[in-house]
Target: MrpA C-terminal/MbhD domain-containing protein
Amino acid sequence: MTVARILAVLLVGVLGTAVVLTRDTVHQALVFGLFGLVLALVFLLYMAPDAALAQVVVSGLVVPLLIFVTLAELRGRAE
Model:
């Protein structure tokens, strides 16, 4: 196992823990997006470019975007 793989997997563990422990929803969505991008890097390091591309699109972009749109809609209704 290379040093890059070890560091990337450790970073995924740290970011996964940070997602769970973050209380603010906006910050949690941002950390989750970063988690998804780092996980895509792990997939690339393990020679799975198709899984990495899907991970970037879904976990790095779509899910955080949907969370932000939902929060904006909920805040708009509250006012």
Remarks:
- The radius of gyration is 15 Å.
- The chain is about 90% helix and 0% strand.
- The mean pLDDT is 94.
- The longest helix spans residues 49-78.
